[in-house]
Amino acid sequence: MKYYIIAGEASGDLHGSNLMKEIIKEDTNAEIRFWGGDLMQAVGGTIVSHYKERAFMGFVEVLLNLRKIFGFIKFCKNDIHKFKPDVIVFIDNSGFNLRIAKWAKLEGYKTNYYISPQVWASRASRVEAIKRDIDKMFVILPFEKAFYDKYGYNVEFVGHPLIDGIAGRKQIEEKAFRKEYNLGDKEIIALLPGSRKQEIKKMLSTMLKMVDKFPNYQFVVAGAPSQSKEFYNEFLKAKKVPYINNKTYDLLSISSIALVTSGTATLETALFKVPQVVCYKGSWLSYQIAKRIITLKYISLVNLIMDKEVVTELIQNDFTEQNLEQELQALLLKENKEKLFLDYFDLENSLGGKGASNKTAKLIVNGLA
């Protein structure tokens, strides 16, 4: 069978690569063409476009790049027509994917969606378009099935693929890892400032101000695979802080605390049982727009899944040097760490266990049969 997979950004590349591996196990004759990244490319198949080419973040940047985005959409449609897939699998990346899905359904292609658009966060009216355009939806968060049920749309809860990714990773030897990156013997505070340039610019400077306030800890910046070392140098030149690229899981496995930009990384950090402060700051205009359309009590996946404040969120004007220092101090207290660990275990239990990629691949392949 022929599979056309469309993923955007680093997390989509990760989940897409694991899904591809499982599809190939289920269908040994699978022919895969995809939009993704290095991880998907390493599995095999044919890459059409790398997600780095389409990394537009926030309302303002999207508006400034509309011509380029529409060019990608037109090119994608033409490429699908030439390939003639048996199924198109969309992974997250809703702004792009839902436009392609609407067209694909009208053209008679079978449409599957893995990792739902966050319609539960804003513009729930999009559910009607999803019901119309997507033949089967595979969701990874426990509350999403109940959300879609309210709209009469039957979706499959397959569990969260991060559990497989973390459980299946190769364990590191901490002493050797510290030596390789010259980290010394101090406890580590990991800085995860995001994956896009706009995020990193907004987040990292404030995060680095904690270095002088907590001299008994070793701060380490987790570099995103989508950005070059040169980009980080402008932030790190004033501070002697190690930078480790594309080794976030290894870094989290030996970290005591993390400062994390809101996104998938908050859930990853929780699954490693690392106490964290969730941070986010966007442009003034993007924040004002988001504030008016997002209907959630929280922005971090940890708090959303648990439906309570498990981790502190410092958002927009609350993301200040003073507040960050105060929250870091609070995380150092033993009683706060113990309560957080218990919540983290409850969080992991709610995510459905291992096998998300395998379950999804079987459902996709069996759906074609």
Please characterize this protein's 3D structure.
The chain has 2 domains: about 180 residues, Rossmann fold (3-Layer(aba) Sandwich); about 180 residues, Glycogen Phosphorylase B (Rossmann fold), CATH 3.40.50.2000. About 50% of the residues lie in helices and about 15% in strands. The termini are close together. Helix 1 packs across helix 18, helix 4 crosses helix 5 and helix 5 packs across helix 6. The chain is globular, with a radius of gyration of 21 Å. Strand 2, helix 2 and strand 3 form a beta-alpha-beta unit. It has a 7-stranded parallel β-sheet with strand order 3-2-1-4-5-6-7, with helices on both faces. Strands 10-9-8-11-12-13 form a 6-stranded parallel β-sheet, with helices on both faces. The protein has about 375 residues and is α/β, with parallel strands linked by helices.
SSE arrangement:
Blueprint: E1 2-7, H1 9-26, E2 31-36, H2 38-43, E3 46-50, H3 58-64, H4 66-83, E4 87-91, H5 94-106, E5 111-114, H6 126-133, E6 136-139, H7 142-149, E7 156-157, H8 161-167, H9 174-180, E8 187-192, H10 197-208, E9 217-223, H11 229-236, E10 243-245, H12 248-252, E11 257-261, H13 264-271, E12 276-280, H14 284-293, H15 301-306, E13 312-315, H16 321-331, H17 334-349, H18 356-368
Helix pairs in contact: 1-18, 4-5, 5-6
